[in-house]
Amino acid sequence: MELTEFEDRFIKQLNTLIPFIQLGNREVFGLLRKNPDIYFGESDYTLCDQSAFHQIVIESSIMLAYSYFEAFLKDLAQYITMKNPGIMNDAGLQMNCSEILGVYSKHGQNGFPHLLTGLVNKYIDKRADRCSNALDFCVDKLNIQDAHNIRIIKAMIDLRHAIVHNPSEKQEKQREVLRVLKNGNDRILTETHLNSCGAAVRQLVSQFINQAQHLNHA
Question: What is the spatial distance between Cα 108 and Cα 117, in angstroms, rounded to a whole number?
Fold first, then answer.
């Protein structure tokens, strides 16, 4: 996949979250409350109150955005490494004989690019196995200096981790996001805050792509 292709894919994915976030507004909640059988069938599901419903939508948006961003970063990390395989020299990577023979039995004399791809994938699994590591990798290799937007994104990554793995830390991590966004007096995340985080991601992605394009001439 070309550099601009997975940028376009990510931006389109991010754009789908704009209407999704609006599911948390009062008008949509009112429709769910008024016609529960249409949306939930004849199940025993009990709709929570509007405030809790709003929070569910916000958290779901964060988790979707995280998944899209992680996929983008790993693709970018692979692209960076394929353009400059020498960065793998210190990783201590190895391919066993069966892997090498398997590649050449399948691809013959054209096997080298597939061997390289295999090594790159191992390297990415080692250096960019999680979203936070992949972010650090891309920031480092592309020499990105945007400290403010990076801080916003890392705070959101920490919040996502709390949502999924440590719910007891959600409030603390949410307050950190608000502080980084300079909205420390606000008590909860809203659509406006998520839009600000989205703008930070878009700006950083643009910088990533601009820097990565220069690797073609390295």
Answer: 15
Number of neighbouring beta carbons within 10 Å of residue 213? 11
pLDDT in tens, 38-90: 666 666 667 677 788 888 899 999 999 999 999 999 999 999 988 887 777 66
Q: 189: closest CA among 14, 10, 11, 21?
A: 21
Residues 6+ away with beta carbon under 8 Å from 138: 73, 76, 77, 80, 128, 144, 208
Residues written for the chain = 218
H-type helices in 22-169, by residue range?
Answer: 26-34, 36-40, 50-83, 97-107, 111-127, 131-141, 147-165
* pLDDT digit string, tens, across residues 10-45: 999 999 998 888 877 777 777 777 776 766 666 666
pTM of the model: 0.83
Residue 94's Cβ-count burial label (10 Å; 0-12, 13-18, 19+) is: exposed
What is the crossing angle of helices 170-180 and 191-213, to 10°?
Answer: 70
* Rounded CA separation 139/150 (Å): 9
CA distances from 120 to 4, 23, 30, 80, 104 (A): 20, 40, 50, 10, 17
